[in-house]
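TICKET: design request
STATUS: open
ATTACHED STRUCTURE:
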């Protein structure tokens, strides 16, 4: 019987590894499941085998389409293995195809669908696999898959809203910066040489622009450029740490316009995720744990983990939500009503629908306000540089006219 080595995480989320004897990889998967271990890598001694995962190779849209097609096939009565075989066969994304083939092989080997999906955690996250597990247990897998596809589609819509709000100003500022640096680096020195040869007295705006041009072209200018790039990289690395992520997410939520938008997005994501999990039969404590990990904001994540802890201590859901000072009063009140009436999942979905509409409206308003501001900014900065270079020429032309 072959010996396998494995790496994975236990129920507490801690990394574990070891060796185990099993008849096949599917048998090993089942043995690990009994020990509540989710494998991330399994290999037979002497012949390495990696559980296929992806790093950015499968996007949310592809996952949503797969989930919806899967739900239709299950609803039509097709066997699970046949569904996975058909979907893997028609999948154009090779990375996703490998994951589906591996999932089908594990199901064929006797593993449950949720356990097989847990072997590819970068494609099927905890929210996805927990909902599938709830669907398998309750015998409503087709319904759960429909809910999942709807959830993923709405999540994609939210992500698109964030990108729409950020791409335009970042794009305009990047183009403006590139144009200004090019003007100061290549165009202004030509004018500076011309003016030096003519010996004319330069007005203040022109002297300022020439001084900036000299600085950009100097060694110090290069140092500052390197420092800016290094600062951005350092900020990104710092954001990867728990402390940095919490600090930056706190600042973002407190910003005047962007903060309000990000708060609405966080509320929409939290209510949609938790509502979908509860309606699918996932216990509320586990649902809060999953929702916290998929919140996308460290402040919201910390608040939800506190809510979970308070709920474990016997408190109601609304009390810790109010104390967190992250969620608007309307949200906590509506959740309180849902808790009292026993319709928590429906209430959470209504809140999510409302806030998703609010996000759409806020993004449109933001883009409408930013457009004229960006145009004025470009006109003032680029136009100011160009005009400052032509001011001495007007003086020279005036002197030549007076001499005639």
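STATUS: resolved
RESOLUTION: sequence designed for all positions
ATTACHED SEQUENCE:
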């Amino acid at each position: 019987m072959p010996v396998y080595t494995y790496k994975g995480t236990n129920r507490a989320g801690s990394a574990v590894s070891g060796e185990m004897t099993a008849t096949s990889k599917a048998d090993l998967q089942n043995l690990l499941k009994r020990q509540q271990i989710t494998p991330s890598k399994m290999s037979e001694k002497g012949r390495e085998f990696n559980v296929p995962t992806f790093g950015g190779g499968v996007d949310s849209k592809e996952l949503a389409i797969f989930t919806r097609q899967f739900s239709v096939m299950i609803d039509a009565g097709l066997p699970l293995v046949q569904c996975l075989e058909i979907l893997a066969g028609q999948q154009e994304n090779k990375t996703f195809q490998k994951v589906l083939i591996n999932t089908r092989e594990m199901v064929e080997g006797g593993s449950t669908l949720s356990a097989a999906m847990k072997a590819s955690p970068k494609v099927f996250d905890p929210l996805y696999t927990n909902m599938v597990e709830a669907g398998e247990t309750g015998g409503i897998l087709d319904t759960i898959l429909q809910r999942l596809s709807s959830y993923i589609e709405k999540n994609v819509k939210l992500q698109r809203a964030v990108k729409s709000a950020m791409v335009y100003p970042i794009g305009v500022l990047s183009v403006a910066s590139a144009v200004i640096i090019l003007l100061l680096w290549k165009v202004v020195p030509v004018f500076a040489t011309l003016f030096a040869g003519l010996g004319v007295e330069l007005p203040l705006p022109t002297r300022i622009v020439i001084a900036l041009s000299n600085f950009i072209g100097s060694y110090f200018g290069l140092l500052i450029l390197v420092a800016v790039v290094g600062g951005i990289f350092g900020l990104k690395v710092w954001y990867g740490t728990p402390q940095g992520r919490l600090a930056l997410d706190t600042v973002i939520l407190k910003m005047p316009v962007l903060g309000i938008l990000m708060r609405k997005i966080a509320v929409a994501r939290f209510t949609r995720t938790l509502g979908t999990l509860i309606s699918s039969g996932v216990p509320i404590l586990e649902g809060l744990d999953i929702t916290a990990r998929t919140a996308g904001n460290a402040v919201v994540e910390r608040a939800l983990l506190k809510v979970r802890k308070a709920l474990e201590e016997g408190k109601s859901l609304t009390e810790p939500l109010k104390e967190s000072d992250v969620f608007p009063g309307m949200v906590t009140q509506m959740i309180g009503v849902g808790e009292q009436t026993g319709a928590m999942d429906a209430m959470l979905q209504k809140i999510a629908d409302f806030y998703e509409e609010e996000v759409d409206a806020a993004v449109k308003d933001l883009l409408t306000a930013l457009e004229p501001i960006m145009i004025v900014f470009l006109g003032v900065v680029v136009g100011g540089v160009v005009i400052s270079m032509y001011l001495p020429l007007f003086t020279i032309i005036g002197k030549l006219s007076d001499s005639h």
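CLOSING REMARK: The chain has 16 helices and three strands. The first helix runs from residue 25 to 34.
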